Backbone:
């Protein structure tokens, strides 16, 4: 286990990661709100979380990562102290005249597909907010009991003035917030800074639960239940902030090591999470990591400016997932990343250069009599130091990679590259570079043994089919599929590819 240093938004400085349990790191990353395809700005933050996961794993830690799916409660005006507006998923459902749950599942699936394209490692747990409503209600009830929240007209608000540390993450004081923050007019709240933990649902609201029983009200029963209920203010839906608090508590425990998100989550979302957690059970989140906003052509991305891109848009323009991954990952997560098509081209060229060198060095056979002219171990050490100790220093780590491959190619040109050194660089690219950046074509790093196995399985399957033993033929195909190899029958021949 190596020492890891990260910049903690809460402290405002770089500090050594000191996990609650030695060798284990618990991470919670705010996941997507599934009402539309996620855009490249969203994915910058999800890629930061992937980078963090991979760096910790590479450094020898055992990592548990929770990344939720927000499928209820995220309102359109989410930058207000207390979010207002329409539920993003319901708005889309209305627009498309579909069941809101259908919308949520559709975009959840699309998100997971995009993640795969970008080679993001799936989280250990991917909880849906709608499946943890009971936990959210329980937490809300504890906050009411302890006096940190109050219920009025069927809605429940957090009493911000009672939590003296409110504002510690975003460096806001309650006083500053009162004078400067964007607040809405709402007479039922004690203070404009109070935020909703639970909102009363009108009959027309399509996603609602019973606050007493925690049960979801099926769409077709909403009208009937509202009509028959003694107290219709019992029906409602959870706020966006409470879901992350409830899911992290259930899956990681009261305290955990790292929480990540985009910088727009710092306030109010993460500030509210801290308030809810600390007032319910006193648990602490040790380190907060936030990815900076992404600009496109120097401007904030927006649909109206025509500089808004989803992963699908870029794939359609012919860029690969690896290229997009590299372009979004290669700048430090706390720097403003200006995304341009030029930067995508540069990413494409950088990957092509690494792949080219990788292939040349892998086939390097000429044994040079020269002594070794460079030191792969020194480069590896520097590469690790940047990633581990410079707050996930990707740009410096990448410059080490390019220095190393350029030096190796120079030595080769001058006939000074030994086979041993060439193999060490190949191994570095496979084991060190690729385990973090993951952009090498998958088929190039498939082991020779697996290749042999695939070829013999193809023959075995062909024989089984000739003998009309379909069950056996299918079994062979499924065995390979389990190893990530897909067989393709074309024009009487069987080829294979890595399952995407
Ligand atoms: Zn969250």
Residues:
């Amino acid at each position: 286990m190596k020492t890891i240093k990260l910049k903690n938004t809460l402290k405002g400085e770089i500090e050594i990661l000191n996990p609650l349990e030695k060798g284990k790191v618990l991470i919670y990353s705010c996941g997507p709100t599934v009402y539309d395809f996620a855009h490249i700005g969203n994915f910058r933050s999800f890629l930061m979380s992937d980078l963090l996961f991979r760096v910790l794993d590479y450094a020898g830690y055992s990592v548990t990562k929770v990344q939720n799916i927000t499928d209820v409660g995220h309102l359109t005006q989410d930058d207000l102290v207390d979010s207002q507006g329409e539920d993003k998923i319901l708005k889309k459902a209305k627009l498309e005249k579909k069941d809101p749950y259908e919308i949520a599942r559709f975009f959840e699936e699309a998100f997971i597909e995009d993640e795969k394209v970008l080679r993001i490692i799936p989280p250990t747990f991917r909880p849906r907010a709608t499946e943890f409503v009971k936990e959210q209600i329980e937490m809300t009830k504890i906050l009411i009991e302890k006096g940190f929240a109050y219920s009025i007209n069927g809605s429940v608000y957090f009493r911000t003035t009672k939590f003296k540390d409110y504002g510690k993450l975003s460096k806001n004081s309650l006083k500053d917030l009162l004078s400067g923050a964007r607040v809405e007019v709402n007479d039922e709240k004690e203070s404009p800074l109070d935020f909703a933990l639970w909102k009363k649902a009108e009959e027309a609201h399509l996603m609602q639960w019973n606050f007493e029983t925690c049960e979801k009200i099926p769409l077709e029963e909403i009208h009937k239940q509202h009509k028959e209920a003694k107290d219709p203010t019992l029906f409602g839906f959870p706020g966006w902030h409470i879901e992350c608090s409830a899911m992290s508590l259930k899956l990681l425990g009261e305290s955990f090591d790292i929480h990540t998100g985009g910088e727009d989550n710092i306030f109010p979302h993460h500030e509210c999470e801290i308030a809810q957690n600390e007032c319910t059970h006193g648990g602490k989140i040790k380190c907060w990591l936030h990815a900076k906003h992404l600009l496109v052509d120097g401007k904030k991305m927006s649909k109206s400016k025509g500089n808004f891109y989803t992963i699908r848009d870029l794939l359609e323009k012919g860029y690969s997932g690896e290229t997009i991954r590299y372009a979004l990952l290669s700048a430090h997560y706390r720097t403003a990343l200006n995304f341009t098509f030029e930067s995508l081209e540069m990413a494409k060229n950088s990957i092509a250069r690494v792949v080219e060198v990788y292939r040349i060095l892998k086939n390097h056979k000429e044994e040079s009599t020269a002594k070794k002219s460079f030191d792969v171990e020194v480069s590896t050490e520097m590469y690790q130091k940047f990633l581990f100790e410079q707050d996930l220093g990707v740009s410096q780590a990448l410059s080490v990679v390019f220095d190393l491959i350029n030096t190796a190619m120079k030595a080769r040109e001058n006939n000074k590259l030994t086979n041993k050194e060439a193999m060490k660089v190949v191994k570095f690219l496979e084991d060190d570079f690729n385990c973090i950046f993951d952009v090498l074509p998958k088929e190039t790093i498939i082991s020779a043994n697996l290749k042999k196995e695939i070829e013999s399985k193809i023959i075995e399957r062909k024989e089984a089919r000739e003998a009309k033993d379909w069950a056996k033929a299918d079994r062979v195909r499924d065995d390979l599929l389990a190893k990530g190899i897909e067989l393709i029958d074309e024009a009487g021949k069987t080829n294979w590819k890595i399952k995407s």
